[in-house]
Amino acid sequence: MPILSAPSHPLSNDEVSRIRNDFPLLSSEMNGRPLIYLDSGATSQNPVSVLEAEQEYYEQRNAAVHRGAHTLAVEATDAYEAARTTVASFIGASPEEIVFTSNATEALNLVAYSLSNASLGLGGADARPYALGPGDSIVVTEMEHHANLIPWQELAARTGASLRFIPVDDDGALRLEEAASVIDGSTRLLAFTHASNVLGTINPVEELVSLARGVGALTVLDACQSVPHLPVDVAALDVDFMAFSGHKMLGPTGIGALYGKSKHLHAMPPFLTGGSMITTVTMERAEYLPPPARFEAGTQRISQAVALGSAVNYLVETGMDRIEEWERLLGERLVVGLEQIDGVRVLGPRAGQPRIGLAAFDVDGVHSHDVGQFLDSRGIAVRVGHHCAQPLHRRLGLTASTRASTYLYNTTDEVDAFLAAVADVRSFFGASA
């Protein structure tokens, strides 16, 4: 089970105000206004403890890991592997099941290219069950981030497998009644998001995994929008692979992680090759280390991993159950408020339905980029565009939307200030009736 703090009193605006003191950037002003940062779905801010952890590594332990025998190298290796243990515990995994990557995109590509290599015959007999070819199918959903769509498009193109998708309805919800026919005996892999970065939807992992298990398919979970915001236990989810990024969970950029069940990581061929992931090399061939080293070629992301470990500790100390509940309240406040503004269409679940603490919306008669610039003039940072989910926006009849996403350091006053600003958008641009 993940190492999470015991259930305790929920977060409050007073406590969140104290938490904000740990985040230097949140005290900034933008365009002459106090910064209201509502773009954590793209990149979260960093507490002082995370900034100090990375600086302290460079000042006191900077050395190559898993290579040198001198004391400094040993200390660097210990710090790096301690971070792996911390991250593994956070999601209920074993350290050997965590591969550090640059981000979730690389983690997803790692799985795709490893399966591609297996399909080419690399990896020997152990990897043969992971090979794909004509007649096989890969299944995704219509709500995927491009990072969990394009790698599978490319894998299908390289192997001759077909790519299918579970569609969404007019409100953006998965058409689960169609999933059983899309996922069939030809399906070798199902890749889907835990929580949509556009809709805020929390997908039924257990139901989808059960469908995949029924036909012997592997499961890959994009957990970029869930691991930072919800208690996540990979043993309970029973997915084969899961990807997430450090920069969305208070950590630095340049670090992400792939969780993979040990039996898969031991059988699959590597993605990148070079130093640090081999046992024996001749001029003709090479033999590879067991995972996770097999998938961490070259100089590792050492300082970033150490800082990510510090970020996880901050989340654990705050309490993931408390963060989940606070963001549920903020998300509900966002949706209720937006639904009351004339000319605003909220994407995803309606008020009162489960969602993570974000809301994407369309303002009638005003392009999302103009909405974003108007909000920026009031010191409010949001995301605009298609959010790397063009097929989903196209299905909903849009080219772009505006997204506000909260985190543990946002207050209800900030949400209210955002809503008041959105209420002024149409009149400012002369789009109101």
UniProtKB/TrEMBL annotation:
Keyword Nucleotidyltransferase: no
Cofactors: pyridoxal 5'-phosphate
Catalytic activity: (sulfur carrier)-H + L-cysteine = (sulfur carrier)-SH + L-alanine
EC number(s) stated in the UniProt entry for this protein: 2.8.1.7
GO molecular function: cysteine desulfurase activity; pyridoxal phosphate binding
InterPro entries: Aminotrans_V_dom, Aminotrans_V_PyrdxlP_BS, Cys_dSase_SufS, Cysteine_dSase, PyrdxlP-dep_Trfase, PyrdxlP-dep_Trfase_major, PyrdxlP-dep_Trfase_small
Keyword field: Pyridoxal phosphate, Transferase
Parts of the chain that traverse the membrane: none
Gene Ontology terms: biological process: cysteine metabolic process
UniProt domain Aminotransferase class V: residue ranges: 36-418
Family of the protein in this entry: Belongs to the class-V pyridoxal-phosphate-dependent aminotransferase family. Csd subfamily.
Function according to Swiss-Prot or TrEMBL: Catalyzes the removal of elemental sulfur and selenium atoms from L-cysteine, L-cystine, L-selenocysteine, and L-selenocystine to produce L-alanine.
Protein name per Swiss-Prot or TrEMBL: Cysteine desulfurase
Organism: Arthrobacter subterraneus
Taxon lineage: Bacteria, Bacillati, Actinomycetota, Actinomycetes, Micrococcales
